[in-house]
Write a structure and sequence with these properties.
Helix content is 31%, strand content 24%. It has helices at residues 7-24, 47-55, 117-128, 183-191, 217-247; strands spanning 64-66, 73-78, 83-91, 100-109, 115-116, 133-136, 142-148, 193-201, 206-216. It has one domain (36-239). Strands 1, 2, 3, 4, 5, 6, 7, 8 and 9 form a 9-stranded antiparallel sheet that branches. The longest helix is centred in the C-terminal third of the chain and has 31 residues, at 217-247. 26% of the residues are buried. By secondary structure, the protein is of the alpha+beta class.
Length: 253
């Protein structure tokens, strides 16, 4: 994968780590990169680092690999029948190094063991700040959006069209390349680094289920484009070899 999108961020992180080490001493651990994360996992994180981080989420349930063509990655499901907790981490495809481009978490509650909506929002606002956008779909649930610039700084307000951006909609594209752009996709693919919260309610206060999705779409698009280019080149090479082999077969009459 071309490193053009992340190189400035990585250089900044490296300089920050160096400065911290000079002040605090070599024995101190390096600080976590100041990019948005979900459960300590962030877009651009390496496969092995992200797996190790997710394993910290449970001491009894182990990380499971998902190696399907479209959903390359791993996850964890904590099978409490009254409070189901599922995390999925999605990785870039070859020839890219396997790195995280999206993280999703979902919890579903039975009646009597639910969560207050205000507590859920308070936890997210404490970590990410006040949401950039909000949408009430009535019977379709509540949506909250935290939108960040490419350096990971939260935008206090954001273009409402970002509410149409979805990492989940890009899952199939990560292995075959991005769709043909229109204006809306151009905005999402070009600049959407964000966290989306969806809430389904039992009533005005109690949460039935929620899901959060953290995605870096420009990072995903860059990786998918390289995957598509490599696949196209491999297909062309295979076709050329097939034609050359067929050329050896000459009829006689």
């Amino acid at each position: 994968m071309s490193r053009s999108y992340l190189d400035p961020l990585r250089r900044g992180i490296a300089l920050g780590v160096l400065g911290f080490s000079l002040i605090a001493g070599a024995e101190d651990p390096a600080p976590t990169p100041r990019t948005p994360d979900l459960l300590g996992i962030y877009p651009g994180m390496s496969n092995l680092e992200a797996r190790a981080q997710l394993q910290k989420h449970s001491s009894t349930v182990f990380v499971q690999t998902n190696s399907s063509q479209a959903r390359l990655g791993f996850g964890m499901t904590i099978p409490d029948p009254r409070n189901r907790d599922q995390v999925s981490v999605y990785l870039t495809h070859p020839p890219n190094e396997p790195t995280v481009w999206m993280i999703q978490r979902a919890q579903t509650f039975d009646p009597g063991v639910s969560m207050l909506k205000d507590n859920l929002l308070a936890a997210l606002r404490q970590k990410y700040g006040t949401e950039s956008l909000y949408s009430d779909h009535g019977g379709g649930g509540l949506y909250y959006y935290w939108v960040f610039d490419k350096e990971g700084h939260r935008l206090a307000s954001a273009d409402p069209r970002y509410m149409n951006c979805s990492g989940n909609d890009f899952v199939a594209n990560i292995s075959r390349g991005p769709e043909k752009l229109n204006e809306e996709l151009g905005l999402c693919y070009g600049s959407f680094l964000g966290l989306t919260l969806y809430i389904n309610m039992w009533d005005a206060q109690m949460v039935r289920a929620y899901s959060v999705e953290l995605v870096n779409l420009p990072y995903a698009v860059e990786a998918a484009t390289l995957t598509m280019t490599a696949k196209s080149a491999a297909d062309q090479a295979a076709r050329a070899a097939e034609i050359e082999k067929s050329n050896q077969n000459k009829p006689s009459f």
